[in-house]
Amino acid sequence: MRQTMTITKKKERLKAGVIKVLLVEDDSADAEWVRRAIAKAGSGTFKLDRVDRLSLALERLVKGGIDAILLDMKLPDGIGLEVFEKIQRAAPTLPIVILTGTVLEERVALQAIEKGAQDYLFKGKIDPAPLVRAIRYAFERKRAEEKILQAMNVKTEFISMVSHELRTPLTAIKEGVELVQDGTVGVLNPDQKKYLDLAKRNIDRLARLINEVLDFQKLESRQAEIHIEENDINGLVNEVREAFALVAKKKGIELVTQLEESPPKIFFDKDKIIQVLTNLVGNALKVMEKGKIILKTKYLENIIRVSVDDQGPGIKEKDFPKLFQVFSQLAAGDERKPGTTGLGLAISKQIIEAHQGKIGVESVYGKGATFYFTIPRRLESLNKKLGEILVEEGLVSEQQIKEALKKQEGSG
Amino acid sequence: MPKRILVVDDEKDMVSVLLQRLKAGGYEAASANDGEEALRTIKKERFDLIILDIMMPIMDGTELGRILKNDPKTKNIPIIFLTALQTKQEDTGYDIVGPDVIFAKPFDIKELMGKIDELVAK
Q1: What ipTM, to 2 d.p.?
Q2: Could you say which of A114, A156, A248, A285 would form a disulfide bridge with A255 (CB–CB 3.0 to 4.6 Å)?
Q3: What global pTM score does this model have?
Q4: Judged by CB atoms within 8 Å, which residues 175-194 of A form the interface with B?
């Protein structure tokens, strides 16, 4: 409720064209310089509010009504990146422009930019007009970013909701069909059985699709949990090979391994990497009528490379990038078969990228294909949500993740 | 004496197929439409296991689960939660200890029946 009110007020203020800037600066001379610059070039557009301590800035932000922040990162009660991070945490939706005094400080300012600050300016070395323009741009850019994030959240929430809503009726359909199909409520003749089997197959396909959509959405929104532990890659490959052994044999396809001799143990999420390899081997089996599938592991300078060679029809080079996109369908002739959803490789890509590895394909059309992925050797366990890992590795800003997650809490 | 199972779900079709399946599996099964109705039924009759949908009107599955686990008379009845959400243990509102489990819809009926057999055989 209170939030709605603040938003309404904010809208009114912005309609009037006034951007309220919070200046966090302990040096009176510097503050005066900013005040004058804004009075000269931005009067009417900006209203300035100044505090000289980090603690006061945080207090002021709680009250609301601020549209942008000009921040000196050297304050009596805080210094450096930590100052920026605290301010950002208190006001994740506001644009922050860093004020920096020295070249040494510039480095810290650049780090702040990486973490989501909009811009940085050298104090005293900038004319009023560029200062005002920088704030203006920072404000507009931040607003555009917020809109994109919001749209992404709406999409994520929608996908999640639709998938959940689909599950309930699907479960009743599935259980109902199964009751008849397996003869629990009476004996079936062969034709009846045939068409119920068909129905059941497609129910399972639909269920798998819904699960994959949810899987994908969780990975994409960085909600998925990753449990990275020390694991044996050859053991994993053998596990997957055994799981497929029977199906391959039935199709008359040979499933063999060529494994690196005693590779070092590396850290990865076992269940998720099994999911990737299962997908790759499953795909290979689907495109082959006969022949051999080779599962390989290779250790190269702190990287494990796992690959699956098939002797299927192969893939044209121009189609390589499409393979890893969501619901991509290749040209006619590469008919999709039951069991494929078009999400498997997209999910695999996300999982491998979460491990900071690479996934790809090599193929000469007409001569089979090799799908491979790499996992760089890391040295420690991690047991976190994907988003948290990405923040720690410095790949995205905490603010980006927080915003993306905020709307999802409670949506399941 | 056959073991008795209570199915609590507001989805009538779901209840119908589950009851049929349980009867075919040799169980005696009853149903309730929501948490409150389930609570009244559990007070009157004896059950060896409860199958509990999480999302229900009036009183949802997690709330009912909490009430049952806090009552000495009912705390030992194993619960199987059904959910269309990706519910995790902590979302049920209490520590699932021992036999209680969560099945995500759409679940494999053989797995569910296997779990029921396992839980009530004790």
Answers
A1: 0.78
A2: A248
A3: 0.60
A4: 175-176, 178-179, 184-185
* Total of domains in chain B: 1
Note whether B14 contacts A175, CB cutoff 8 Å: yes
Distance CA B49, CA B8 (A): 11
Contacts of A116 (CB under 8 A, 6+ apart): A88, A96, A397, A398, A399, A400
Give the integer Cα–Cα distance in Å for A58 and A91. 9
User: By the 8 A CB rule, do A315 and A330 touch?
Assistant: yes
- For residue B76, give how far its alpha carbon lies from the nearest alpha carbon of chain A (Å): 28
Cα separation, B4 vs B110, in Å, equals 19
Say if residue A165 is exposed, middle or buried (CB neighbours under 10 Å; 0-12, 13-18, 19+): exposed
Can you tell me the distance from the alpha carbon of A236 to that of A277, in angstroms, rounded to the nearest whole number?
9
Q: Which of these ranges, A36-45, A114-123, A229-238, has the smallest mean pLDDT?
A: A36-45
Angle, CA B115 vertex, CA B114 and CA B119 arms, to 5°: 120
Partner residue opposite B84 with nearest CB, options A164, A178, A185: A164
Query: Domain of B112?
Result: 4-120
The answer to whether the Cβ–Cβ distance between A185 and B24 falls below 8 Å is: yes
User: In this predicted model, what pLDDT tens digit does every residue of A374-383 receive, in sequence order?
Assistant: 998 876 666 6
- Pairing state between β B101-104 and B79-83: parallel
pLDDT (tens digit per residue) in A185-223? 889 999 999 999 999 988 988 888 888 888 888 787 777
Q: φ, ψ for residue A73 (rounded to 5)?
A: -95, 10
Give yes or no for A343 touching B (CB within 8 A).
Answer: no
- CATH number for the domain including B66? 3.40.50.2300
Which residues in chain A are contacts of B106 at CB distance < 8 A? 167, 170-171, 174, 203, 207
Mean pLDDT, range B76-96, rounded to an integer? 73
| pLDDT over 80 at A71, yes or no | yes
User: Domains in chain A, please, with CATH?
Assistant: 2-145 (3.40.50.2300), 150-222+395-406 (1.10.287), 226-386 (3.30.565.10)
Which residues between 21 and 80 in chain B have a beta carbon less than 8 angstroms from any beta carbon of chain A? 21, 24
Distance between CA A291 and CA A116 in Å, rounded?
A: 52
